[in-house]
Amino acid sequence: MKLMIKSRYLSILTFVMTVGCAAFVGQGVAAGGDGQLPIRVISLNVPDSSREPFFEGLKLFSEKYAFAIRIAPTTPDNEYYTIQMWREDIEIIGGNTKDINPKEEVTIALYNNGTQPVNEASADFVSSSIKEFVAGIPGVSVK
Hints:
Blueprint: H1 2-22, E1 40-45, H2 51-64, E2 68-73, E3 81-86, E4 90-95, E5 105-112, H3 120-135, E6 141-142
Antiparallel strand pairs: 1-5, 1-6, 2-3, 3-4, 4-5
Helix pairs in contact: 2-3
């Protein structure tokens, strides 16, 4: 019974996260859950063959720059996924979204995480660091 409840909770959580990602991935980037617009947006092309190395690159980035990270599928076939990274000053939300863009198109958005705005230099540094980490992965390209 506990396993069924956990499974149902995970399914609901995945659905909510998928809807949340759909709010900013696609034609443009909309406001996050609290109404704020992203401070930076990164558009990538990640083919299926590069997906696992891409995830590993994001994990290395998160370790180096002290972000907690969560990557989870949003569909039962694992073709679509959400990416979340956060620390005290910045929250990063990304992924690919079914029925909006091709599954290879990935958007990563940076948001303020807290009451104090992130300074421009820090936002630029985090954005460029993500691009550097993923640019070396075969098949992955920054748009």
